[in-house]
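Try this one yourself first.
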């Protein structure tokens, strides 16, 4: 991961408005604009980004992250070699947050070959596609089960007004809301304010994003943890490993993980943080996946390191399952694997 601009830390919103205004409003030449409209950070939450450059040329990606009140969390520029793939989390780039906060981010590049997906760590195990090109008019369907809120993001450096039109299942008009939203702010519409609405239409003075987000996400219990050392995830086999996906089952009443606990291994090609990390501290499942090109790790391959964080003493062990292993050509190599194991490093 190569950052060539310094990271702008939390600071005055006025100081942070100058460059974002240039990025989001005046860079008509930008070929790619990708947005994560809603994420949480702190107390076990984070957002993991998987960014790829599919072109034959090097590219740069500017990443801007804002907290819900429009405060600039940070800005960084990522240099992407041709055909490169980078995995990073918001916490890694801008630093861990002591308190839980929600926010949104934008990835902007002058290259048209930049692609991105993201995972909401601590919230969902499913990878998601980013939003692109905010609009002044949007339509959303409101789930009728569960606890949900609508979050509206102003991607402009000027304040805006948002008109929300509520409609029932037949499209019949129910009521109208007029809401102000400040520069780069994230506005939340709780489910109770939507009441009988099944659909809503949004009309804004400037470009906005909107997302339906689950609000009853259970917090990961990462307080009062004890560092129990680090384990090495080792895959033993008879052929070079190009990619893997492993499921680790654990006792969630005794151990909890955060994205910072999962690191790269020591084997050639796998020293970087794994490209995909899905943590479910409720069910007790940790899924790790990654791939590499250019190296030929073989034998006992140390693919990842896992830091243990114990909540309470337990005699429970770990369950390990290799879900997939591929060779350097991308073909399944499960038949060549003899074992997967966790080895204590310290």
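Now uncover the answer:
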């Amino acid at each position: 991961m190569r950052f060539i601009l310094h990271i702008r830390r939390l600071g005055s919103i006025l100081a942070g408005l100058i460059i974002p205004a240039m990025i989001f409003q005046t860079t008509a030449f930008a070929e790619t604009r990708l947005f994560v409209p809603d994420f949480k950070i702190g107390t076990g939450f984070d957002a993991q980004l998987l960014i790829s450059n599919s072109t034959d040329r090097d590219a740069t990606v500017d990443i801007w992250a804002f907290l819900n009140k429009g405060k600039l969390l940070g800005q960084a520029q990522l240099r992407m070699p041709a055909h490169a793939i980078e995995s990073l989390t918001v916490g890694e780039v801008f630093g861990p947050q002591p308190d839980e906060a929600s926010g949104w981010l934008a990835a902007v590049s002058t290259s048209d070959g930049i692609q991105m997906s993201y995972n909401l760590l601590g919230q969902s195990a499913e990878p998601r596609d980013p939003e692109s090109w905010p609009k002044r008019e949007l339509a959303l369907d409101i789930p009728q089960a569960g606890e949900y809120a609508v979050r509206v993001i102003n991607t402009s450096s000027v304040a805006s007004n948002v008109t929300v039109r509520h409609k029932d299942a037949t499209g019949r008009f129910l009521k109208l809301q007029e809401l102000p939203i400040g520069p780069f702010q994230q506005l939340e519409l709780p489910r109770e304010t939507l009441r009988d609405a099944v659909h809503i239409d949004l009309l804004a003075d400037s470009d906005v994003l909107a997302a339906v987000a689950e609000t009853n996400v259970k917090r990961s219990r990462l307080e009062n943890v004890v560092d129990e050392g680090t384990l090495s995830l080792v895959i033993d086999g008879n052929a070079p490993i190009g990619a893997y996906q492993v499921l680790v089952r654990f006792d969630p009443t005794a151990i909890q993980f955060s994205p910072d606990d999962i690191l790269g291994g020591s084997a050639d090609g796998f020293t970087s943080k794994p490209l995909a990390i899905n943590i479910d501290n409720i069910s007790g499942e940790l899924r790790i996946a990654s791939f590499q090109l250019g190296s030929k790790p073989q034998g006992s391959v140390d693919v990842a390191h896992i830091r243990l964080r114990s909540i309470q003493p337990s005699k429970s062990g770990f369950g390990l399952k290799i879900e997939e292993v591929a060779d350097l050509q991308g073909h399944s190599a499960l038949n060549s694997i003899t074992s997967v194991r966790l080895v204590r490093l310290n």
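Discussion: The first strand starts at residue 32 and ends at 41. The CA atoms of residues 44 and 258 lie 6 Å apart.
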